[in-house]
Amino acid sequence: MSECIFCKIAKGEISAEFVYKDETVFVIRDVNPQAPTHLLVIPTQHIASAADAGDPEIWTSIMGRAVEVARDLGLDKEGFRMVVNTGVQSGQTVPHIHLHLLSGRNFGWPPG
Ligand code: DGP
Predict the structure, then answer these.
(1) Which of 3, 28, 30 to mutate to test the pocket of ligand 1 (most atoms within 8 A of CB)?
(2) CATH numeric code, 5-103
């Protein structure tokens, strides 16, 4: 989608710090990190939210890549949190599916 921030990042029209990229999924550092490591795992295909993801394969690529990157960076040693905000009440601000991969500090439960 032409005006979508994450589509623009995928096309190189907006810069971002890439950690991983292939034809289906990319991983960038969040511009406003909420933990020492805060990555966004984003499918290249524009899908507005998790509620709009009809093909379960999308989760294979997002979750699979998130865990691969977490292992590659050693985040699995102390642990990490994965979050997919979906819709207004969850706090989703960018309407293009993305998974937050957070690590490097203790996280509270229940989440805020
Ligand atoms: P959410 O609130 O779940 O929709 O998360 C959107 C995240 O995207 C938020 O943590 C900030 C991040 N973000 C927004 N715009 C940009 C950008 O231009 N570059 C990067 N790297 N991250 C962005």
Answers:
(1) 30
(2) 3.30.428.10
**Ligand 1 centroid to 36 CA: how many Å?**
15
Instruction: List the Cα angle 94/99/105 in 5-degree steps.
Output: 110
93 lines ligand 1 (CB under 6 A): yes
- pLDDT for 1 equals 78
Give per-residue pLDDT as tens, 16-26.
Answer: 999 999 999 99
Between the alpha carbon of residue 34 and those of residues 66, 68, 88, 101, 105, the distances in Å are: 17, 21, 19, 10, 10
Whether this prediction's pTM lies above 0.90 is answered by yes
pLDDT in tens, 81-90: 999 999 999 9
Model confidence at 112: pLDDT above 90: no
* In the chain, where the domains are located: 5-103
